[in-house]
Amino acid sequence: MTFTLPPLPYAYEALGPYMSKETLEYHHDKHHQAYVTNGNNAIKGTEFEGKSLEEIVKGSFGKNPAVFNNAGQHFNHIHFWSWMKPNGGGSKLPGRLEKKIDEDLGGFEKFKADFAAAGVGQFGSGWCWLSVKNGKLEISKTPNGENPLVHGATPILGCDVWEHSYYIDYRNRRPDYLKAFVDSLINWDYVDELYGKAI
């Protein structure tokens, strides 16, 4: 397949004041576009031409860093834009997801604290995740463009903790960025949609 940059599902200023127009312009138009361009160049003439994005991510992990890094980040960012929405967050979750978070993660408030802690605790660039593995929800963190797909899990929520995701708006205050993400940006309907496909 050929990678293409998807448009943002909202206006550039729609996530303010938590994520600025300037951040989205840099992050989406420059950084994500670079993963698309570099990924397309990296897969030319390889065994990954013509495969789905998930197949490329799983198949290139540990074998072809140039393909994996760009394909992984393209996968992560396609979902990242949809994991956020204007007036997101809140405490009203879809019922089945709320029940599962209570069962597997000790409740919503504990989930929020543990998810943010995973992002804060990721040294350097990377992501924090909520995934489904063996029928259970789990929180994890990964370096760089790695994601739970390569560890046998299905990601249903992720937050980008590379500096370009937050430095314009929060400088070095990664905990404040993660708090804003969890409290005010998450598109829980999309998380629930992915959860439904994963179970």
Automatic annotation (TrEMBL):
<keyword id="KW-0408">Iron</keyword>
<feature type="binding site">
    <location>
        <position position="77"/>
    </location>
    <ligand>
        <name>Mn(2+)</name>
    </ligand>
</feature>
<comment type="function">
    <text>Destroys superoxide anion radicals which are normally produced within the cells and which are toxic to biological systems. Catalyzes the dismutation of superoxide anion radicals into O2 and H2O2 by successive reduction and oxidation of the transition metal ion at the active site.</text>
</comment>
<dbReference type="InterPro" id="IPR036314">
    <property type="entry name" value="SOD_C_sf"/>
</dbReference>
<dbReference type="InterPro" id="IPR036324">
    <property type="entry name" value="Mn/Fe_SOD_N_sf"/>
</dbReference>
<dbReference type="GO" id="GO:0004784">
    <property type="term" value="F:superoxide dismutase activity"/>
</dbReference>
<feature type="binding site">
    <location>
        <position position="164"/>
    </location>
    <ligand>
        <name>Mn(2+)</name>
    </ligand>
</feature>
<dbReference type="GO" id="GO:0046914">
    <property type="term" value="F:transition metal ion binding"/>
</dbReference>
<dbReference type="Pfam" id="PF00081">
    <property type="entry name" value="Sod_Fe_N"/>
</dbReference>
<feature type="domain" description="Manganese/iron superoxide dismutase N-terminal">
    <location>
        <begin position="2"/>
        <end position="84"/>
    </location>
</feature>
<keyword id="KW-0560">Oxidoreductase</keyword>
<keyword id="KW-0479">Metal-binding</keyword>
<comment type="similarity">
    <text>Belongs to the iron/manganese superoxide dismutase family.</text>
</comment>
<comment type="function">
    <text>Destroys radicals which are normally produced within the cells and which are toxic to biological systems.</text>
</comment>
<dbReference type="GO" id="GO:0005737">
    <property type="term" value="C:cytoplasm"/>
</dbReference>
<feature type="binding site">
    <location>
        <position position="27"/>
    </location>
    <ligand>
        <name>Mn(2+)</name>
    </ligand>
</feature>
<protein>
    <recommendedName>
        <fullName>Superoxide dismutase</fullName>
        <ecNumber>1.15.1.1</ecNumber>
    </recommendedName>
</protein>
<dbReference type="Pfam" id="PF02777">
    <property type="entry name" value="Sod_Fe_C"/>
</dbReference>
<feature type="domain" description="Manganese/iron superoxide dismutase C-terminal">
    <location>
        <begin position="95"/>
        <end position="193"/>
    </location>
</feature>
<dbReference type="InterPro" id="IPR019833">
    <property type="entry name" value="Mn/Fe_SOD_BS"/>
</dbReference>
<dbReference type="InterPro" id="IPR019832">
    <property type="entry name" value="Mn/Fe_SOD_C"/>
</dbReference>
<feature type="binding site">
    <location>
        <position position="160"/>
    </location>
    <ligand>
        <name>Mn(2+)</name>
    </ligand>
</feature>
<dbReference type="InterPro" id="IPR001189">
    <property type="entry name" value="Mn/Fe_SOD"/>
</dbReference>
<dbReference type="InterPro" id="IPR019831">
    <property type="entry name" value="Mn/Fe_SOD_N"/>
</dbReference>
